[in-house]
Specification:
By secondary structure, this protein is α+β, with helices and mostly antiparallel strands. It has helices at 9-12, 40-43, 45-74, 82-113, 130-147, 153-165, 168-175, 185-189, 232-242, and strands at 199-201, 218-223, 244-248, 269-273, 285-287, 292-294, 301-303, 309-312, 324-326, 332-334. The strands form three sheets. It has a four-stranded antiparallel beta sheet. A four-stranded antiparallel beta sheet has the order 5-6-7-8, with no helix packed on it. The chain folds into two domains: 40-175, no CATH class; 185-351, 3-layer Sandwich (Rieske Iron-sulfur Protein), CATH 2.102.10.10. The termini are far apart. Strand 5 and strand 6 form a beta hairpin.
């Protein structure tokens, strides 16, 4: 055994502990921050100017990308020619890519070559007095001064131009989602559902007999009048508002029936809008044992047994229910349109 005692490495001196509470010594001392190594741009003004021009070029690339997007959006692709449509899609994609990439790479290159790169450690200070506020303002001023944005107008001006233009493609795209003159709350209130309109399967258009539905079944439904619309754009718009999920459950499992809704279902068959009241995603997942409907986008969950009330997730109101009945031939029909606007909640909904 000798001087190593019982062979325990902790007692043999072969292993140094990470810390020793008595001696205060550590196996690895705090090395601190490494010495600062200046960059070429820190010591050579020509290199700094070259870096400045490179950053400005990247910001100009962003501006050119935005211009390419607008050329593709407003100039190209207004005919049915397939080649022109492909060219438009290419210009839109390339334009947005260069607009975002140019401004992103420009900021990164600016930070790496021209902004101060000294590392420092500073203890966190609680905010206390007006002096502290003024100190914070001074820090912000120092940051602006150190960034060189005041001393380098070429970078500043190209950055401003790129930052102003870069968001415009998104603004144009969102604005152009719907240019209809009647867009507004009233438009979302009404669908093509009406009294006597048959419920048909989507996409076959087959009418649905109440006797053919078994307990636990669920299917996607559209109004029969949708089949008569010939304009493709109008058809899609109407379908987006009027699509319905039809469910059959045991009538005894329907727990909530509000006053005035006593005749909205038929022998446990119940229908509701598929458009989630959060942001409009299609509610399509039905769990027959719990009677829960799940929106796959943000997990809003609705209870079909309790008039489709929200039981989980960000949705702010229940799914609108479609009143249904059975006609003389045994087919399911609507009693009326939805009694409230379908789709997401929005600030104007109360005016609809």
């Amino acid at each position: 055994m000798g001087e190593h005692g019982n062979g325990d490495p902790r007692e043999s001196g072969a292993v140094i502990n990470a810390g020793d509470g008595e001696s205060g010594q550590y196996a690895i001392d705090d090395p601190g921050l490494p010495p600062h190594r200046p960059r070429l741009a820190d010591e050579d003004e020509k290199t700094a100017k070259r870096s400045e021009r490179q950053v400005a070029v990247l910001f100009l690339v962003s501006i050119i990308g935005t211009v390419i997007f607008f050329i593709g959006y407003f100039v190209v692709g207004h005919t049915a020619d397939l080649h022109e449509v492909r060219l438009q899609n290419t210009l839109l994609g390339v334009g947005v890519a260069f607009a975002m990439l140019g401004i992103g790479l420009g900021v990164v290159h600016w930070a790496k070559t021209l902004m101060p790169d000294h590392e420092l450690v500073e203890a966190r200070k609680p905010l206390r007095t007006e002096d502290q506020r003024q100190e914070a303002e001074q820090i912000v001023g120092d940051v602006l001064e150190e960034s060189g944005i005041k001393r380098r107008p070429l970078i500043r001006n190209t950055l401003i131009g790129a930052a102003v233009l870069a968001p415009l493609p998104a603004v144009v795209l969102f604005r152009d989602l719907d240019l209809s003159e009647d867009f507004g709350p009233e438009r979302m209130r009404h669908t093509i559902w009406d009294e006597g309109v048959r419920l048909v399967r989507d996409p076959t258009g087959t009418p649905v007999r109440a006797a053919d539905l078994t307990v636990g079944s669920a299917m996607h439904i559209v109004p029969e009048t949708l089949l008569d619309i010939t304009d493709h754009g109008e058809k899609l718009a109407e379908k987006a508002k009027s699509v319905v999920l039809l469910i059959r459950m045991d009538p005894e499992e329907i727990q909530t029936v509000s006053e005035g809704r006593e005749d909205w279902t038929y022998e446990g068959i119940i229908a509701a809008s598929k458009v989630c009241t959060h942001v409009g995603c299609p509610v399509a997942l039905y769990e027959r044992h719990t009677h829960h409907l799940l929106c796959p986008c943000h997990q809003s969950t609705f209870d079909a047994a309790n008039e489709f009330e929200v039981i989980f997730g960000p949705a702010g109101r229940p799914l609108p229910q479609l009143p249904i009945a059975v006609d003389d031939e045994g087919f399911l029909v609507a009693r009326s349109d939805f009694t409230e606007p379908v789709g997401p909640s929005y600030w104007e909904r109360g005016n609809a």
